[in-house]
User: Fold these one by one.
Assistant:
Number 1:
Amino acid sequence: MVKLEDDYLAPHYVQRSNWLRAAVLGANDGILSTASLAIGIAAASSLREPVILATVAGLVAGALSMAAGEYVSVSSQADVEKSDVIRESKELLEMPELELERLAEIYEKRGLKKKTALIVAQELTEHDALGAHMRDELGLNEISQAHPIQAALASGASFVLGGTLPLLVTLFMPLKNMEYWLYAFAILFLIILGAVAAKTGGSSVGRAIFRITFWGTLAMGLTALMGYMFGVSLEG
């Protein structure tokens, strides 16, 4: 009984979508891009120092790029949302009757009878006209609303966390066959990340693991191939 009550009171998975998307994207990119870079250098060099240097550089640059990119992207979304809210506020002041009809039509299309839809629209307009139109006409709410700083911090921090894992491999694992060590640990890290993200988001763990393993293998395999092709230039 207690468990059922806890499940009932627990937040829905969709409420985690914004920060979860940014965090998973950052961690996945941190593991994959840093490991791929390290694999490419390891395949092209017999020395540990170039591998570590490239990994650290990729980690720092990637984290900053991820945070900045996420901030700019989500800020653009926030600007669009803000413009629509301003426009909607203006329309509510200039043509409230038309906006009321538009809101009633939305509810009617969702299955309410025409009279009921109008009553609902009137009552919601009296309570919070702008809030009703933001939610039901524009599709904006607290869950889906853009938060640039939150997204940037989640992406940047998770990238650092993810990218640190391949860096530890380059520091402590044997230099011989380093690229294979990096691949094995990166896949392990990606599997763990996929499983945790799937459990947190309430989705299929198996599907998440397959997806992340397939694309991770492809990315790291192509990078290693490039390293082998151009490896002669790093030994002199």
Note: The helical segments are 2-9, 17-44, 48-94, 96-109, 114-136, 148-172, 178-201, 205-229.
Number 2:
Amino acid sequence: MNIKELDPESSPQAAFGALLRTSRLERSWTQDELGDRMGYSSTHLSSVETGRKMPTLRLARRADAALEAGGAFEREWREIRHGTLLEGFPEFLDVESKAVEIRLYEVGVVPGLLQTSEYAAALAESAVKRGAITPEQAGERVALVAERQAALLRTPPPMVFATLDEGCIRRPVGGPGVMEGQLAHLAAFAELPNTVLQIATFDMGVRRPFDLPLYVLTMPDRTVLSYAESAHQGHLERESTFVLPMLTAYHQLQAEAPSQAASVAMINQLRKGTP
């Protein structure tokens, strides 16, 4: 039988296929036998093993169960999923999903935690048109937004403090219908018992301590981390000497920005077409 050789180092997808084939052969199982245990056809598994078909999270978890892999396949799947993300961002996603308090400042676009699916899709489609990502990667970006937001529904939920530069609500994305839905979502977000939403207005000028997006995360053990991005990579900072000044500056930002009530009133004025 002509078996296609895979180089596990060539891509995360090839590494997943190679791991699936190796684990199956270690048990002397055919693709039919593994397929029966996982609930997939041998043809489908063959396509995954040879890298022709992208594995799903569902398939990865079933492979972990059938092959008693201890989560190895899910970890490989996440490598595939995060392979197109900015360096440092996957590590941030992991700590974000566990944080008990999330403080964020965003410039230019509504942050992922607060985006509607339509708004996220409009941003992703724009990136496809620019040739920055593929349509498949665009779908992964939209799915990742939903995945991040779902993690916030855990019990108890984290406290989320969101301060958005005014440009986030004034920059049109995806047309009037998409923007109306997004602004309505922000107003509803502000009504939640575990959220605070403020708009850092343009007239704050130099009283804004940040010029770039920033996240400050408080973990269950009360340690505080910060995350910021450049054009090429993200950086998760754990050293308190650098993080605590960021937390202080964030408190100063909140003190200078309009209140949540005033911020929501601004959002609702925009929804009515009032400057």
Note: Residues 135-151 form the longest helix (17 residues).
